[in-house]
Specification:
Number of strands: 3
Largest sheet: 3 strands, antiparallel
Distance between the termini: 30 Å
Number of domains: 1
Order of helices and strands: EHHEHE
Strand content: 15-25%
Number of helices: 3
Structural class: alpha+beta
Mean pLDDT: 76
Helix content: 40-55%
Length: 122
């Protein structure tokens, strides 16, 4: 149980939600947001390229093919990050998300899985 564990050894992850109206301009907003967050967190070029491709394609498919460019329909993007809202880099990223989102919801935090400790950063 989490309360019985040494809290200093527990890494946490956060889940965030971004809602975009289903219009072409949202794709540009999402791409700009990805770029700004990647710059702030010094994401490697390879990881940035993968993030941009995956998120842009997913948003384009949802906006154009799924929602038929109906601005009354929303595209919801969930982001799962390592960190905590009390950390300054996470605070800056959240400010960016809130600026671009029509609705922003912090779903909660949870201990990250131990396999993440062995993953390379960035």
């Amino acid at each position: 149980m989490l309360n019985d564990m040494d809290q200093s050894n527990v890494q946490t992850s956060e889940m965030y939600t971004l809602q975009l109206p289903s219009k072409q301009e949202s794709i540009t907003l999402l791409e700009n947001l990805i770029e700004e967050i990647a710059d702030k967190h010094k994401i490697s070029e390879d990881t940035f390229a993968n993030m941009m491709t995956c998120l842009s394609e997913a948003a384009i498919n949802a906006i154009v093919h799924g929602n038929k460019l109906d601005p009354n329909k929303k595209v919801i993007v969930n982001a799962d990050i390592e960190g905590h809202p009390s950390e300054r880099p996470v605070q800056l990223a959240l400010e960016e998300l809130q600026f671009f989102a029509s609705k922003f919801t912090l779903l909660g935090s949870y201990p990250s899985h131990p396999f993440r400790e062995d993953m390379p950063a960035g």
